[in-house]
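Please go through the sequence and fold tokens given here and tell me how the chain folds. Record follows.
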Amino acid sequence: MSQDSEEIKTVEQWRWSEMQGLELVSSPPKTTTARDTEGKVFEERENRGGERRDMEEVSEVKRDGSSLPSTGFGELFRFADGLDYVLMAIGTVGAIVHGSSLPLFLRFFADLVNSFGSNANNIDKMTHEVIKYAFYFLVVGAAIWASSWAEISCWMWTGERQSTKMRIKYLEAALNQDIPFFDTEVRTSDVVFAINTDAVMVQDAISEKLGNFLHYMATFVSGFVVGFTAVWQLALVTLAVVPLIAVIGGVHTTTLAKLSSKSQEALSEAGNIAEQTIARICIVGLRVDIVSL
């Protein structure tokens, strides 16, 4: 009888307000079950599954020695938000204005020099032309100052913001991996190298270098526009050299990309060797201390 009463007490509860009546009330069913726990674990695994698969694919490619899959240029801006798009729009306008200002300045300067010859016998007219073009130079200088500030500050700001988010997401994905993943797939030095070096390269690509690209493209286009409106014969001769410049630039970019890739691999390998050496030194020192004790 005592065993039955103890078994009942383990399954049911006493209602303390009715202790004298010895009324037993069944406890409410618990909602937390093993199935719910498995569901939560499954959801967490699904959330981390995409990040884990990406890192495993990259590590598999590195181990096989094949080249990494190429990524579209638009994928570099996957971490951009509304403020980043506003900053990139302002930086783009600033880069275009800044790049177009140099050919415009040279056109005004050429007109000023021509006015010296055409108004050599009329000092008053020459003075008037000098004052007019001085005002033009002042306006162009103010436009260069404002546009250059907008170009550099906006592109650098948005690049810093996006690269910070990229580092955080990468570190979260690395921390969500299992411990054996770092023993067989990815080395610790690879994670550190990716956060320090690869993120900086992506930041340069989506900030300063992209602004410079827009700047020089605006200079190129506006320069030919000014050239064809001024002396189209000379501009046409200059245009014939553009394909040669494009070929040289393509060869230079390809060679530089290959050398940069080799440099990154060498730095990563050097970091891994240094990490292993320091770890072995610590192990040997620990063994010496244990033996001495």
Remarks:
- The longest helix spans residues 123-175.
- Residues 61 and 67 are 7 Å apart (CA to CA).
- The chain is about 80% helix and 0% strand.
- Residues 1-30 have pLDDT under 50 and may be disordered.
